[in-house]
Amino acid sequence: MIDTWWRRRFSHLSLDQLEAFVLAAETGSISAAARRLGKAQSAVSTAVTNLELGAGVKLFDRSKKYPVLTREGEVLLKDAQNVLRRVNGFLDRAYAFASTEDAHIRIAVDEIIPQPFLSRVLERFAEKFPQTELELLYGVLTDIQTLVEEGRADVGLLVPYDFPDKAMSARRLAYMNFFPVAAKDHPLAALKRIRPQDLEPHRQLCITSRGGEREPDSFVFGSRTWMVESSYVIRDLVCRGVGYAFLPLHLVEEELSSGRLVRLPLWQEMAPYQAPIYLIWSQSRSLGHAGMWLMQEFFQIKKAVGY
User: Fold this and answer.
1) From CA 126, how far away is CA 149, in angstroms rounded?
2) Among residues 98, 124, 145, which one ends one of the domains?
3) In whole angstroms, what is the distance from residue 215 CA to residue 139 CA?
4) Which domain holds residue 153?
5) Distance CA 119, CA 123 (A)
6) Which residue ranges does the record assign to the HTH lysR-type domain (predicted)?
7) Are 85 and 122 within one domain?
8) How far apart are CA 44 and CA 22, in angstroms?
9) Which of 23, 37, 158, 270 is the most buried (most CB within 10 A)?
10) How far apart are alpha carbons 116 and 97 in whole angstroms?
11) Angle, to 10 degrees, between the axis of helix 231-239 and the axis of helix 249-258?
12) pLDDT tens for the 307 residues of the chain, in order
């Protein structure tokens, strides 16, 4: 807030005066500034003079043919430019909001979602909606649903092991296949065909949410399990030979190509586990142009996971 003394001292200063000052400095003359503003030269000259009188500082040296900024004027020019830039930003944002563009969008994303897909969407979003603020929250499994339910996120990209709560709107976008992987020197990597009894003696790394949700029991085969909240940590531990895990191919594609990890061959009756990808949103939250645009972009995630 502006101090009361300063408010009384400079209450007569205006944005028109600042604009006249900035344009006169940038164009090099009062007449050029007047042409840019579409005003009489005398009006622009008066605005600059009144700004100098009100601020109590000389902005231009008028002893030559064309006015030249004083040392004080050079410093204050940057401040004036910043003020006008902020005012224009304020007006642009206010206009956008008046046109039903969202002021702030909060997105909750399951960390397993392919990052290149999300980054491409957000890059286009930044260009299309420059005035809308964005908050990106990460979690796993039911963490995403909790963020949307509690109003901490407007929309969520969720990879659950069960159907989302009926209290919110949901749309299934695609399926993501999970395959068992292990380090190249892990004992399981030497087997030509993996059966359930082959997995049982080895440590399995499983994903878990902060709320306690975990992989379905039908996909937990190890007698010793580690529960980890991050799929990326699981991937790194698997690379170090700590255990094996079921992970989506896009998360381990580089490691498989380099040979650090191997995809374990499943027994014939065992199909890859498929997890659905859902877009969820609160029924009580009305989204504007930016939010609806994001949802339409998220509907294209099927292309990102290859299904």
Assistant:
1) 26
2) 98
3) 15
4) 106-171+279-305
5) 6
6) 13-70
7) no
8) 11
9) 158
10) 29
11) 20
12) 445 544 555 556 778 888 888 888 888 888 888 887 788 888 888 888 888 887 788 888 888 777 888 888 888 888 888 887 777 666 555 655 554 556 788 889 998 888 888 888 889 988 888 878 888 898 887 888 888 888 888 888 888 766 666 656 788 888 888 888 999 999 999 998 888 888 889 999 998 887 777 776 777 887 789 999 889 999 999 999 999 999 988 899 999 999 999 999 877 656 667 788 888 887 666 777 888 888 888 887 765 554 4
Verdict on whether the full-model pTM lies above 0.85: no
Alpha helices in the chain (DSSP H): 4-10, 15-27, 30-37, 41-55, 71-98, 115-128, 142-149, 196-199, 231-239, 249-258, 289-298, 301-305
Tell me the C-alpha distance between 164 and 144, whole Å: 10
CA dihedral 102, 104, 108, 114 (to 10 degrees): 70
